[in-house]
Amino acid sequence: MKTEFLNRVKLCFRISSYLLNIGTIRFLDYENLSNSLKSAGLDVLFINMVTSFFISLVLSLQIVKEFLYLNAVQLVSSMLAISFIRELSPVLTAIITIGKVGSLFTSELGTMVITEQIDSLFILGISPIRYLIYPRVLALILALPLLNLFSLCTSLISSSFICFFLYQISPNFFFMNLWYDNILFDLVKSSLKALIFGFCVSIISCVWGITTSGGSRGVGLSTTSSVVTSLLLVFILNFFLSYFLFDNLSSSFSAL
Questions:
Q1: Which of 198, 208, 250, 221 is nearest to 106 (CA)?
Q2: What percent of the chain has pLDDT over 70?
Q3: Which residues contact 103 (CB under 8 A, 6 or more apart)?
Q4: What does pTM read for this prediction?
Q5: Contact indicator for 131, 33 with CB cutoff of 8 Å
Q6: Domain boundaries, the chain
C-alpha cells in the first residue's frame, strides 16, 4: 500500500511537469475539454451555490450578533467578506468539487483501465495523458476559480438576507460597508488559491484513476483513496497558501 501510494505521488509529479509545458496545448482534445467543463462547472454550480447559501446563513447567524453586542455593526459585512473571500469560498468549493467531480474523474478513468479501454488507446497510438487527463485537468483549473466567485456572491447575498430579516441591517448598509482595503487583491489571491486547488485535485483524481487495479472493487478503493487524499491535500495547502497570501492582516480595516 505504501509503495503504491509513493508510485502514485511520483506519477503525479511526472504528469504535472508534462502538463505545465506550454507546448502541450497543441494536443488538447477540445471535445473532451467541453465535456469535462460541463462536469466540472455546470453540473457542480447548483449544489455549490446551495451549500454556500446555507453555510453563510449559519456563519452570519453566529457572527453578526456578536458584532452587534460590541456595537461594531459597520464591520459586519467586511468581516464576513474577509471570511468568505480568503477561506470559506475557495475551500468549500474545493471540497464540493472533490466529492462530485474528483470522484467522477477517478471512477471514469478507473473503469476505463479495468475494461482495457486505456490499452486500446495505446494500440491506436493515442496518448491517454493528452486525450484523457489533460482536458480534465484544464477543465478543473478553469472551472474552480469561477465556481469560487459564484460561491462568494451567493454567500454575501445570503448574509445580507439574514442580516436584514433577523438584525434589521439593510442590504444597502450591508453592501456599502462591504469594501475594505485590499479587497481586490484578496479576490485575485482567492482565485489563485482556487486555481491551485483545481490543479491538485484534478491531478490526484486522474492519477488515482489510471493506476486502478483489481476489478470493480479496485475502482471503489481508488475513488475513496483519491477523495481522501485530495481533501487532506486541500486542507494542508490551504494553511500554507493562507499564510503566504494573506499574512498581512493589519491593513484589512485601515480604510474603514
A1: 208
A2: 95
A3: 205, 223, 226, 227
A4: 0.91
A5: no
A6: 2-48+81-151+182-245
Phi, psi of 203 (to 5 degrees): -65, -50
Residue 20 CB-density burial (10 A; 0-12 exposed, 13-18 middle, 19+ buried): exposed
The set of cell numbers assigned to 240 is 500554507
User: pLDDT-derived band of residue 209, with 50, 70 and 90 as boundaries?
Assistant: very high
Cell of 115: 475494461
Output the 3-class SS for 105-143: HHHHHHHHHHCCHHHHHHHCCCCHHHHHHHHHHHHHHHH
| 3-state secondary structure labels for all residues of the chain | CHHHHHHHHHHHHHHHHHHCCHHHHHHCCHHHHHHHHHHHHHHHHHHHHHHHHHHHHHHHHHHHHHHHHCCCHHHHHHHHHHHHHHHHHHHHHHHHHHHHHHHHHHHHHHHHHHCCHHHHHHHCCCCHHHHHHHHHHHHHHHHHHHHHHHHHHHHHHHHHHHHHHHHCCCHHHHHHCCCCCCHHHHHHHHHHHHHHHHHHHHHHHHHHHHCCCCHHHHHHHHHHHHHHHHHHHHHHHHHHHHHHHCCCCCCCCCCC
Query: Measured between alpha carbons, how far is 51 from 127 in angstroms, rounded to an integer?
Result: 38
pLDDT confidence bin for 23, thresholds 50/70/90: low
